[in-house]
């Protein structure tokens, strides 16, 4: 497996609307190897998710996996999930989510997200997926699927005064957000 290079903000590939892939493309050795590399790269960088265009491949594939994540200690665990050609349906209330992104180094900010998401698409075998996720997990799904539409979380930040470096997040915002994150998990589940 290979650790792929991650594109950072300013690179045009992050602003491209990624294209759908066919079941034949998905079944190819090349694509299956790419998905392994995408997961490996996400794990290596401690990401909670990674979209294919973040590693310079503008196709509608993303990975999500939260397992005791040191970058997001307040996020509920969520099993490794590969989404191919995902379509999101958002509903419910919105909540304020403190987000970061491997493509936006050393910056976090508050993005309002829907508390409820239904996602339909395929898994890596091309089988149909129909999932419902809530709260912080719903935030992660919206963040990753935004990437496939050429959007980054900064586009969703409504109050730029919430922007912070990681060091200052830990210094000034983490303990307050941990309380809010617990309340979000308690209210909406995951
Ligand atoms: Ni991101």
Strand content: 25-35%
Largest sheet: 5 strands, antiparallel
Heteromolecules bound: nickel (II) ion
Return the structural class: alpha+beta
Shape type = globular
Distance between the termini: 31 Å
Plain-language structure description:
This protein is α+β, with helices and mostly antiparallel strands and 190 residues long. It has one domain: Peptide deformylase (Peptide Deformylase, Alpha-Beta Complex). The chain is built from four helices and five strands. It has a five-stranded antiparallel beta sheet with strand order 1-2-3-4-5, sandwiched between helices. The radius of gyration is 16 Å and the shape is globular. The protein starts with 22 loop residues before the first helix and ends with a helix. Nickel (II) ion (NI) binds next to helix 3.
Attribute tags:
190 residues; alpha+beta; Peptide Deformylase; five-stranded antiparallel β-sheet; 4 helices; 5 strands; 31% strand; binds nickel (II) ion
How is this structure best summarized?
The chain is of the alpha+beta class and about 190 residues long.
Give the arrangement of secondary structure elements.
Layout: H1 23-27, H2 29-44, E1 49-51, E2 61-66, E3 78-101, E4 104-122, E5 128-134, H3 135-148, H4 166-188
The structure holds nickel (II) ion.
């Amino acid at each position: 497996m290979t650790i792929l290079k991650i594109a950072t903000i300013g690179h045009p590939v992050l602003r491209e609307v990624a294209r759908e892939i066919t079941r034949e493309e998905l079944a190819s050795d090349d694509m299956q190897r790419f998905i392994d590399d995408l997961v490996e790269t996400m794990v290596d960088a401690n990401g909670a998710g990674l979209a294919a265009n973040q590693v310079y491949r503008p196709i509608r594939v993303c990975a999500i996996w939260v397992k005791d994540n040191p970058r997001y200690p307040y996020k509920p665990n969520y099993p490794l999930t590969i989404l191919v050609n995902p379509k999101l349906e958002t509903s419910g209330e919105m909540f304020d989510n403190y987000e970061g992104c491997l493509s936006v180094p050393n910056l976090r900010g508050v993005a309002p997200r829907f508390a409820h998401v239904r996602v339909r698409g395929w898994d890596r075998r091309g089988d149909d997926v129909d999932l419902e996720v809530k709260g912080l997990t719903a935030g992660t799904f919206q963040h990753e699927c935004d990437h496939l539409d050429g959007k980054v979380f900064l586009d969703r930040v409504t109050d730029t005064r919430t922007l912070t470096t990681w060091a200052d997040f830990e210094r000034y915002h983490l303990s307050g957000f941990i309380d809010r994150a617990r309340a979000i998990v308690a209210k909406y589940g995951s």
